[in-house]
Sequence to fold (958 residues):
Amino acid sequence: MSPITEWAAALMNPSPVALIIAILVALSIPIFLHSIVFRASGLTTLPSILLLGPSGSGKTSLLTLFERGTNPADTHTSQSPIAVECHLPVGATATSDKYRSVNDPTANSTYKKFLLIDTPGHGKLRHHALDNLTNPQNLKGIIFVADAATLSAGDEGLRQTADYLHDVLLLLQKRMESKNKAAKKLRDIPVLIAANKMDLFTALPAALVKSTLEAEITKIRTSRSKRLLDSGIGIEDDAENDDWLGEIGSKEFKFSQMEEFDVLVEVAGGKVAGGDGPAVDKWWKWVSERL
Amino acid sequence: MLDTFEILTTSGVVLWSKTYSAISPAIINSLITNVFIEERTLTHPGSGVADDVSAANNPPYKYDQHTVKWTAVKELGIIFVAVYRSLLHLSWIDKLVDNIKTLFVDLYGDQLKKPHTTVVECHFDEYFDQQVRELEKTALNQDTRAPQSTNSLQESSISGAGDARDEPPPLPGLLSKGGPKYNKDSTSNESTPIATPDTSRPSTPASHLLVGKGGPGGKGSRRARKAAIASTYASSGDESHSRRTRAAKSAGPKKGRKWDADGLADEDSDTPLDYSAPANGATSGEDEGQTLPGSVEQVDQESWGSKTGKGQFVLKDLDDQVNSILASADAKKGQTTAASSGIVGSSISAIGGLFRNVVGGKTLTKEDLDKAMKGMEDHLLRKNVAREAAVRLCEGVERELIGVKTGNFESVQARIQTAMESSLRKILTPTSSLDLLREIDAVTSPSSLSLQKRRPYVISIVGVNGVGKSTNLSKICFFLLQNKYKVLVVACDTFRSGAVEQLAVHVRNLKELTVREGGKVELYQKGYGKDAANVAKDAVTFAAQEGFDVVLIDTAGRRHNDQRLMSSLEKFAKFAQPDKILMVGEALVGTDSVAQARNFNVAFGSGRSLDGFIISKCDTVGDMVGTLVSMVHATNVPVLFVGVGQHYSDLRNLSVKWAVEKLLSSN
Fold:
């Protein structure tokens, strides 16, 4: 007899060893698969909050403040985006933890972490931010940081801030038409307009920030509607005339008009730096409500 | 004196900083926007955001009476910046920035690679202080002895000569300085510009004192030897320069040296590092005997401690560490240059490279990129991009890609394509939004809160002959009229016969076209032979009186290299005070576009430059829209409009996406 047939015979024999091995294999495969799949998906599911805003508004400062808790680091103009893992401060509970028992031992570890993604605000580098919007990874909210001290009427800062905000909101409004699946999955997308630098003398209060931005966006969308066509028009068969932000036919733009597109805009004041320390409680509260 | 030294990441977080006198953060911010983001300063080849470029090769950036020296480590995304007053001439800053870079990367490199954090735990102050002290000291020594020149390339020979002059030997600064010259390389020892034995006699004891101690006193003591070697090694400011010059001079090939954990040379390397041994070199042999043991002791003490007197040994430890880090970094550099040999090794790596080229995951090197970049450059040239701009773009992409790993199943070409796409997009995207209508609104109907008075918005159009100034002016006019503005067209071409009549025809046509839509347009003309600047000024006053919203000024075409014609533009800009100066350039023009854009950009005197381009005749060139890139490259001025046809309505905003697609399409 050749060894091969011997082997075959041994395998076919209902020996207890072969049985045990077979059972072990059959049982371990699902466990093995589960661990692989679970671990792979576990990496990407950290909820993320996106920081947007024009250059110099204090995004990176806010990022370092959220990361370190007490003091923001010195910062300069950013050139590249960065994602930082942050924890909710002690005392703040995420909305998803609301109904957990106080004694639940897992309550302190899960879901309190989130990724804060900082993007450069310089005009030439905004594509980083817009990429994050068109291809979001578990995006829970957007913080649009604005420098409240440069938002007085007729200011260059107001124009740039409103311009950027307009573009962002328009992109969010059109997210359903985009071909990207991840963008379509975003149902509600809350936007916080964080009016930063409240410690400065010229800073507008939050309510005023809201109304000036609304007024400026009204101007922007009328002038955009009147502008020349883009040179690329006709190549791609885009619908041409739906670049109107908010309710069509409305005379004045209000942030509340965005609710129709499931974009909830809030405005809250605060400061990252300043004389008597940072004051970002409102923003933390907003963040914890999104998680 | 140095004002500030900062270490920051590309994401904008300051990791560590040392401030001697407070400076405005605007200095570094403007460095970042101008040099890194907008790439305004044209860097010479090899410099820029590339890795391992010494600060000396990066052009210093000047802003508001301050000079900024910088260098960057690309893979970690950190930038090292030193700021000092422009009045001061600090020659050692380059060296400081480089040394700090080496130290910081070595000490905290692994912390910097951690994802999802901006915090770097660093206690860098003492390292920095040590470097500053040391470099300042060497600079001081050099200044007293060789004040005539601070050129870094000459430094080694100068300091060599400085040693030769008589000088009180037992100075610690001198010790660490003189050291490397003797102890560096046996092969090149003879070729160094150290002076003859006679003159060098007073100084040579200094360099041997340490060894005198190392020999009898502490042969067994490992620590002492380590200290001796480390401190004689590679500590002084001009060390690497002298090495470099020497390496260039010495004909023989250089070997990489192996270093163990302590920074000691491996024993089996056949070149002895300890040149102080009597057998080594005729120059030092005779001096050795003359050295008195007493003086050995004395200097020994001094070289051990620091001048502060307190915490001497701690400081010495720090020096050790710093020097060994610097030395090992240098040695590594030497090794990498020496190691690229061997036929078998290279062929294996070539095969592996081919494989990875298909599969991806290949780390790109300059050789990989060279050929593909050449192809990309040719492609851009075919698209009518001026050579200068094409070279700059390609260099930028190459710099960005060297050391980058390709993704899975991504070929080198595909990687270059995407990098070039983002590069083109970056160069064409304007820094701020270009909404002409809103700017006009802001000027013609200022908000009640601001103190500005209502005035007409003035746009003037300049350009070379025959590019379509008048045509594009009427196109803009048509666009404005459709938006119900009152427009005054001013004929400032008082030179070419028929120019005024041509504009008159345009205005007549536009009147007829837009009369129903409520626009109002008038022509302002003073005939021929008048001074254009005066006509423009009168026209603006007239428009303000009559309540026009926009003034469009047509100017005479002029050759950009004709100094006489160009000089009148400065007066024109001063008199007319235009809100926007637009230059019309035709898409047909090739390499000359760079010179055109540049000359027009500077023609308006200091403090005034172009505000935008109109690229006309884009419909005639098909895909070859390279002029767009060339002009923006030359001036950093954005393209406002693109002319795409003969009708009044054939004016378009530039869509960056469209332009990039055309430039990269291959046919």
Q: What stands out?
A: Residues 44-51, 146-221, 224-253, 277-314 of chain B have pLDDT under 50 and may be disordered. Chain B touches chain A through 58 residues (CB under 8 Å). Chain B has four domains: 2-122, 164-339, 362-428, 436-661. Residues 362-428 of chain B form one domain.
